[in-house]
Write a sequence for this structure.
């Protein structure tokens, strides 16, 4: 079977949902097309690597593609190579008990942007009440406001937020508008601490939506045997490698891992167009991942949550070419350390030298399903705690 015959066979099964970052590719003779996202391109050898809609990767030579596609490769593929700064260790300095106000200076964009990808569900998305926060910020979080009580703006930290693959916010970090709706999440505490500790441009790149389970919607591509009774919930559990049955297609094409593909894809697409999201920047490296999720896990399998976290961390490092990246997750605010979900998070981190867990209950008011009543202290303290743990990991 020829490569293009194989491609055509795979493509003919079809999908109802096409990621926004995917491209339609055409064969050299124009007779065949397929949809996939460009992962890497070597201009010297002509080798192309793409990720297909079923989550699998495919490698081939540029010669099988149309002239238009080859021109695209020479533009976007080289851009990917040029912008990827490598996997050097992110330098950090210690942080004081109370952060000072930001100095208002822009970062040196000749240095690679240190990118931190944030994922999870609704509480990572953020429901903190910015109005209530402003009333107490001067006393509790003085670095958020100036002497006149106006919001400070960090010109060295870019705050970028995607939801369901769509851009919601793209601006400098300020507590007055954390997620583009006048509310905020843990990105405010995280971003301020990382901005202080890192002498380089910082990007907080959040890509998430509410009501998504790690054991189903956000299932990592390599997850295997983590469903109930040891099943592998790739696709709709009837097929491997995220192939989707006709039954799943009829249900609007949803499949296990679709939200992972969409959230990761939106973040990857942003990094391919780095200067749009961090003006003046030309290089980046993904230094870490933040994860706050769990309230929707009834749709997944809490018993294997630690295994799915391990698959998640491994796949994120692969998908962002970040083998040295660190990982910080947070427990749900209503769960004590004895809760099964909390235990699974700590079990995961115990086995991963580059991962830590922030225990949220001592600083949380209310529960995750009620978005902590919009309590600003919950979102601030969880964010600060996660940021400090990331700094500790980076300093090792």
């Amino acid at each position: 079977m020829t490569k293009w015959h194989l491609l055509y066979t795979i493509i003919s099964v079809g999908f109802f949902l096409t990621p926004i970052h995917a491209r339609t590719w055409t064969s050299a003779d124009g007779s065949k097309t397929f949809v996939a996202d460009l992962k890497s391109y070597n201009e010297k050898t002509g080798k192309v690597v793409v990720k297909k809609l079923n989550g699998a990767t495919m490698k081939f030579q540029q010669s099988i593609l149309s002239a238009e596609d080859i021109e695209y490769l020479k533009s976007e593929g080289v851009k990917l190579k040029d912008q990827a700064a490598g996997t050097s260790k992110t330098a950090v300095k210690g942080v004081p008990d109370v952060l000072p106000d930001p100095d208002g200076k822009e970062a040196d964009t000749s240095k690679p942007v240190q990118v931190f990808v944030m994922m999870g569900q609704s509480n990572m998305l953020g429901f903190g009440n910015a109005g209530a926060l402003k009333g107490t910020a001067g006393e509790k979080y003085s670095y958020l406001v100036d002497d006149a009580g106006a919001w400070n703006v960090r010109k060295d930290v870019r705050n970028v937020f995607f939801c369901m693959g769509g851009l919601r916010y793209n601006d400098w970090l300020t507590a007055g508008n954390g997620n583009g709706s006048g509310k905020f999440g843990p990105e405010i505490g995280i971003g301020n601490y990382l901005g202080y500790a890192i002498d380089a441009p910082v990007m907080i790149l959040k890509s998430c939506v509410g009501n998504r389970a790690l054991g189903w919607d956000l299932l990592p591509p390599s997850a295997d045997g983590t469903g109930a009774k040891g099943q592998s919930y790739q696709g709709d559990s009837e097929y491997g490698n995220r192939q989707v049955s006709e039954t799943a297609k009829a249900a609007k094409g949803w499949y296990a891992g679709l939200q992972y593909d969409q959230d990761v894809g939106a973040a990857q697409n942003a990094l391919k167009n780095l200067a749009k999201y961090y003006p003046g920047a030309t290089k980046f490296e993904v230094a870490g991942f933040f994860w706050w999720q769990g309230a929707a896990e009834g749709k997944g399998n809490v018993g294997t949550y630690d295994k799915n976290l391990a698959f998640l961390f491994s796949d994120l490092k692969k998908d962002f070419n970040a083998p040295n990246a660190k990982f910080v997750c947070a427990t749900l605010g209503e769960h004590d350390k004895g809760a099964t979900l909390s235990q699974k998070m700590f079990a995961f981190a115990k086995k991963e030298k580059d991962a830590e867990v922030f225990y949220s209950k001592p600083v949380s008011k209310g529960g995750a399903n009620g978005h902590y009543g919009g309590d600003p202290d919950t979102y601030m303290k969880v964010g600060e705690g996660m940021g400090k743990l990331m700094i500790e990991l980076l300093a090792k």
Notes: The chain has two domains: 3-83, 113-221+257-395. The two ends are 50 Å apart (CA to CA).
